[in-house]
Fold Lrp/AsnC family transcriptional regulator.
Amino acid sequence: MLGADVAPPAAHTPSPARAVHAVFFRYKVHTIVTELDAIDRRIVAELQEDGRITNVELARRAGISAPPCLRRVRRLEELGVIRGYHGDSDPQLLGWAITFFALIGLDSQKDAVLAGFEAMVAEWPEVRECHMIRGGGDFLLRLVARDTVHENQLTRRLTEAVHVSRVQTLQTIRTSRNLVGVPVEPPDRPAGRT
């Protein structure tokens, strides 16, 4: 869970003149303060749109030369701002006809139980996302299945898993929006404002 359970330390109060982002995790507090200038943000935005862009073209779009652009990309990778580069494949063309979500309730919220559930679903290739959530359940999963028989098998496996007390599935009919990454705002403009 992000944010609500842990308050930021007073020593890391962001200055309004700088782009400072802090991420706080619930179980172990990890404070990552990353300062990104307008060029870094442009690089991240461009790579989110096209991970196969050449460094020369990326540098051109960012308004800098290629060597410092490559150094910035490597720095953003080392900081964990850029976590990887992935191909966007069509699930249906690969035989995954169904995408569905599963809202999972557990009978305990002890750390060992939560970690055990996460470890279990991490082994299932059909589980594409696993989010610990607040309100209405403990986890939200996004899964893919070959057909309704396979979907039912996965639902049964979830229902029968240790410590699972409730499973509610929601099948996707159509996906009208599926963006990668996050909005990358200029440092002088708060998120959500135009």
